[in-house]
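Re: [ENG-882] Designed sequences occasionally contain unexpected residues at chain ends

Forwarding the minimal case from QA. Structure tokens:
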């Protein structure tokens, strides 16, 4: 085996190891952004439950498939209210 092939494999293993160590951190950042957006749209309880179920493996998949079949969310968005005196 040539030296360049050995270096390539070594670098690949190091990169894979580094990425697998950082994966939980990346997932945590995604959850924080998603939960903030969901809470604004669905309220505190609905947004938290929506995000929590989505990030549980297989449960989130089943929830999303069921919502797709139903045609609507299990946790609906908050109704939009127009402030009085806004002219709309």
């Amino acid at each position: 085996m040539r030296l360049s092939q050995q270096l390539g494999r070594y670098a690949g293993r190091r990169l894979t190891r580094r990425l697998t160590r950082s994966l939980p951190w990346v997932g945590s950042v995604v959850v924080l952004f998603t939960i903030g957006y969901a809470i604004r749209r669905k309220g505190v309880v609905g947004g938290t439950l929506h995000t929590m179920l989505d990030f549980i493996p297989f449960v989130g998949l089943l929830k999303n498939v069921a919502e797709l079949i139903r045609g609507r969310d299990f946790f609906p968005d908050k109704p939009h209210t127009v402030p009085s005196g806004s002219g709309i």
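QA comment: On inspection the terminal residues look reasonable. The radius of gyration is 21 Å. Proposing we downgrade this to a documentation issue.
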